[in-house]
TrEMBL record, chains A, B:
Its EC number is 3.7.1.2. InterPro entries: Fumarylacetoacetase (IPR005959), Fumarylacetoacetase-like_C (IPR011234), Fumarylacetoacetase_C_sf (IPR036663), Fumarylacetoacetase_N (IPR015377), Fumarylacetoacetase_N_sf (IPR036462). Its cofactor is Ca(2+); Mg(2+). Coiled coil: none annotated. Pathway: Amino-acid degradation; L-phenylalanine degradation; acetoacetate and fumarate from L-phenylalanine: step 6/6. One of its GO terms (molecular function) is fumarylacetoacetase activity. Keywords: Calcium, Hydrolase, Magnesium, Metal-binding, Phenylalanine catabolism, Tyrosine catabolism. It comes from Streptomyces viridiviolaceus. NCBIfam families: fum_ac_acetase. SUPFAM superfamilies: FAH, Fumarylacetoacetate hydrolase, FAH, N-terminal domain. This is fumarylacetoacetase. Residues 113-392 form the Fumarylacetoacetase-like C-terminal domain. The gene is fahA.
Length: 403, 403
């Protein structure tokens, strides 16, 4: 029997070159989903490339969870093996064109937490939601990375259509709450972090140890119904305004692929409590683009985010709370200081009062049929860029409504 | 081969008679956890009683999830078969004494949501946390059942020790936040509801359909660090003040076992929106007892809870959010109108200003070594009571502290 082999080549400026090698889950018609990496515009089956015996049996699973659970040393080893293997002749059967596969949710999500880590975003929301307060930030904001738990079951992969949610809302002119499809449907452009291995109850993960636990990063769109959220969120926080859907990109970019993107976070003043102090740069110079019906409307800079992912994980666990393989925590909306760097439309259109032009039409919040695509890249070696792929979603009408 | 058989008898006034038959997961030394029912003080292995072939293969699983996923008709059928089987001679090997087994978390928890459904509790907390507001209830409270998502990974079975959490707090006299073990560790006596079968994204569960989806009920203690919670919860709700641990009782009481406990909820005025309207009584006449170091300090009446579990599930899904087998939603603290009916110590001791005597000692919040046991019963047929068992937990010192 002859095994057909091939040698893959990737353009030198590809955002999916040998310095990236993200992990995802793909399938081809008639076959179950399996782990893969993306190399240029090739999707390479990990089991067929590296073998499926012993420790590599995880490369036959329908999610990345079993591989992630093998731990940090194993991730390091597999990444090195993968980089070496892709320089050689490989089995042609392991390779598919990106266009020929279906990409799936890469991770079975355990607990999901969304942070509020961008100062520009938090300040903008404070001004819009609590204009009576002299300081747009709440008193706790610079002392701890604020977050809330969200619904894991409604996290979907890029390309999944998003049905406009219905719910209760009560505008300033409504005497009583009304029920119906959200009239203020929004996005939040975020970076999500996947926990590869968690911590047992009672044994917090320190900032220093976070590096060993975070498997990688994804793009994350936390679709938000602002009218539902505004009515429900006091005093226990957002729920129905968010829980209908969140979109993640299909490729998990390994943390080491972002080594070239490490920068200092913005200066944290007042000084943080010792359990949040960082021993190395944990900011990430990741540049987002938000496309609304094909037009770039915003370029949020992740480097401007105040709290780092290591601080987020350390804070989440400092009370002894356990995390697990497959936990996902996201940054919250990434917004920069400029108007065209705001990662949510409620900020970009200032609560809907300052419409923007999108592909020749006026917009404040999302119309049915609108499509949002988040993309991002980060600095890689030798002037290259590391790509995150995309988080894409199109809005469908609520069944009760043709809005 | 002879199979040893036995006929079980249970006292007529047992809270675990043939009208209850809750489901749980037990193990004996050297054997894996398996599903069982409790009959009096006997634990009866479901696989050994009913067989393990075909549909009954779910009775060899280490959680109830596979059985629950079989759906409402199957739950009805198994309950009838179980009631019939327990009247006959059964295999002695299927039966264990309650004292001889270890009980486990009965359900692998998917998404977990905690409500705020008791008006007395919400009003008490409003008076304590937001004394400046003329109305202790927030404007949305009587229009929707408020809730937040919590951490599934930290839900533990009765009997698990609870380590005092550490975290940030900032008291009124603190210039800056301080870090350390919680000084205001509290309980919340709640009823939890287990979702047996969920809904696909975009297809809400109506109030009328809730009956088909709710598998049963458990006791739930939402341990709460009030000092951590008070500092963190604005604007995104509680997180670290709760996420360190919640305790559930090991036996899931099937919803049909609570038929005799159905009562009307308190009058809901103003009228709810149509999607929250109920077509049958959904209040539950479940009487709690809260034991603090062996002494009953409170008797919260579940019948006083304003929002019903059917309304909770309908609200959770009305925006199209999916639920899954193993989802757990809890009521929030059950408090009645009287002081000795308050289900949290922050209410019972009015923010710590009115200490109570507990077994000869003064208490406001929990001391290390304190043990809390929640129990509850509900009306069953012919003057009997339906038992929930108990949710028990003892407080251990934080490693940094001998408090």
């Amino acid at each position: 029997m002859t095994t057909l082999t091939t040698r893959l080549s990737v353009p030198a400026d590809s955002p999916f070159g040998p310095a990236n090698l993200p992990y995802g889950i793909y399938s081809v018609p008639g076959q179950p989903p399996r782990p893969a990496t993306r190399y240029g515009d090739h999707v390479v089956d990990l089991g067929l490339l590296l073998g499926e015996q012993g420790e590599n049996a995880v490369f036959t699973e329908p999610t990345l969870n079993a591989f992630m659970a093998q731990g940090h040393d194993r991730w390091t080893e597999v990444r090195a093996v993968l980089q070496a293997a892709l320089r050689e002749e490989i089995a042609a059967a392991a390779v598919h064109d990106l266009d020929a596969v279906t990409l799936h949710l890469p991770v079975e999500v355990a607990d999901y937490v969304d942070f509020y880590a961008s100062e520009h975003h938090a300040a903008n929301l404070g001004r819009l939601f609590r204009p009576q307060n002299p300081d747009p930030l709440t008193p706790n904001w610079k002392h701890l990375p604020i977050s809330y738990h969200g619904r894991s079951a409604s996290i979907v992969v890029s390309g999944t259509d998003i049905v406009r949610p219905a719910g209760q809302r009560k505008g300033p002119d409504d005497a009583v709450p009304v029920f119906g499809p959200s009239a203020r449907l929004d996005i939040e452009a975020e970076l999500g972090f996947v926990v590869g291995t968690g911590n047992p109850m009672g044994e917090p993960i320190s900032v220093e140890e976070a590096e060993q636990h975070i498997f990688g990063a994804v793009l994350f769109n936390d679709w938000s119904a602002r009218d539902i959220q505004a009515w429900e969120y006091i005093p226990l926080g957002p729920n129905l305004g968010k829980s209908f859907a969140s979109t993640v990109s299909p490729w998990v970019v390994p943390l080491p692929a972002l080594d070239g993107a490490r920068v200092d976070t913005p200066v944290q003043e007042p000084a943080v409590l010792p359990y949040l102090a960082m021993d190395r740069p944990w900011g990430l110079d990741v540049d987002f683009e938000v496309r609304w019906n094909g037009e770039v409307v915003s370029r949020p800079p992740y480097a401007a985010v105040y709290w780092s992912p290591a601080q987020m994980l350390a804070h989440l666990t400092v009370n002894g709370a356990p995390t697990r393989t497959g936990d996902l925590f996201a940054s919250g909306t990434v917004s920069g200081p400029e108007k065209d760097q705001r990662g949510a439309f409620i900020e970009l259109t200032w609560g809907g009062t300052e419409p923007v032009m999108v592909a020749g039409a006026t917009r404040t919040f999302l119309h049915n049929g609108d499509e949002i695509v988040l993309t991002a890249t980060a600095p890689g070696p030798g002037g290259t860029r590391i790509g995150f792929g995309e988080a894409r979603g199109r809005i469908l009408a609520h069944p009760s409504d043709g809005r």
